[in-house]
Amino acid sequence: MTKAKPEPIYGVDDASYQAAGQEPGIRVLVDDFYHVMSTLPEARKIREMHPEDLEEARDKLARFLCGWLGGPKLFQGKYGPIRIPKAHRHLEIGLAERDAWLLCMEEALKQQPYADSFKKYLLEQLYVPAEGSRNKEE
User: Fold this and answer.
1) Model pTM?
2) Is residue 13 domain-resident?
3) Rounded to 5°, angle at Cα 100 from 73 and 88
4) Which of 19, 41, 48, 130 is a good FRET partner for 2, with 20 to 30 A between their CA atoms?
5) pLDDT tens per residue, range 110-121
6) Range of 41's domain?
7) Residue 125 domain-assigned?
8) How many structural domains is the chain composed of?
9) CA–CA separation, 19 vs 113, rounded Å?
10) Contacts 24+ apart (CB under 8 A), 102-105
């Protein structure tokens, strides 16, 4: 009888980065995220906050997630320090926009081959930077 492999402890070392499929898996997630954002009616407003061409936005989010999940710090290497509130201050982001962003991520996560426990963990953790982007009081 083979012993079941213990589930990784997400958030420790690079366990989350590995669970996300490293950079290639993260880039698939990001592509799916922006596809959802471009098609989901509830996300229309936040999609309009982005340029028509999403290439740079995709690259920035993928690079951010790589480092944030415990992998290589790819964002800083190309774009410099990460300053989430400052990067978003030119946009009006309130509760509805934060929640629409999280909904897009939730829908994109449903399409990934990740363990359900990792999907749940990741969505809970992504609330922190999503909330950090909020700059409009309701």
Assistant:
1) 0.92
2) no
3) 50
4) 19
5) 999 999 999 999
6) 19-133
7) yes
8) 1
9) 10
10) 102/126, 102/127, 102/130, 103/40, 103/42, 103/43, 104/33, 104/36, 104/37, 104/40, 104/43, 104/46, 105/33
